[in-house]
User: What shape does this take?
Amino acid sequence: MAKYDAKAALPGGDPGPWGDSVTISYNVRDVLLYAVGIGISDLRYVYENHPGFSVFPTFAIRWGGIGVPVDSNLIPHSPGPLNIDAERYLEVLWPLPTSGSVSVRSRLIGVHPKGKGNGFCEYESVVTDSDGNDCIRMVNGSFRRGVEQLGDIEPFEGSGETYSQKIVVPDTDPTTVTSVEIAENQANTYRLSGDYNSLHIDPEAAKFGGFDSPILHGLCTFGHCAQRLLDEMCDGDSGRFRRIKVRFSSPVYPGDTMEIRAWNESSTRVIFEAKVGDSVVVSNAYFEFA
Assistant: This one.
């Protein structure tokens, strides 16, 4: 069985040290490819000569946790198919440039047990542009699934903070309902933005991870939710995007139709869930905007 020592990894429950900044360069093609990868057709995000061309706000989500210093003796690594995106939080502080270089720094902020044999790690990341502006702040929660043939994680005591929270949707009709059809080749397109986890393309890797067939990237599901909500609440205006938080409750598969149901909590915040049929695939989620 794998062993996690969260108390030693995060003494006193304080966040771990920031890792060295990682420089990432990207160009307009990368921005366009990401937008297409999450199903966007709005010309503001997929046509570089549009007068309002800009980076879709969740573009940086794939950099979450990059360069984070984690002692593998205390928090062991595990095979890719066992690492599942569990929760994501993203906050826009300043617009990203449409091309250029940014730096990303990350740190471990929490390690907690999640059910028998499973572990949940949370990492905070900040993206800074070349002018020194902090543009994006993110927290990603990674769920390490226990699998019998590889050994579950032994019971352990958690440490640190968590962004995981229970957000219950009202027992009333949603204020807004929108749906999106996930293309059969959506995972194939999304992975070209750099997420090459074999779980999303290789049937054998998917079976090894406990799924019948390759599943959609959680971050692709995240992007679809963000773009549909931005359309519905802000007429697609990225300048009004403030923050979004989600929990991935069940996998989405290429070819699925996903329904996003949102309830107004205020004039600048909705809580939402996403469903495929009767299955809730995104829960404990909110979107905030100006």
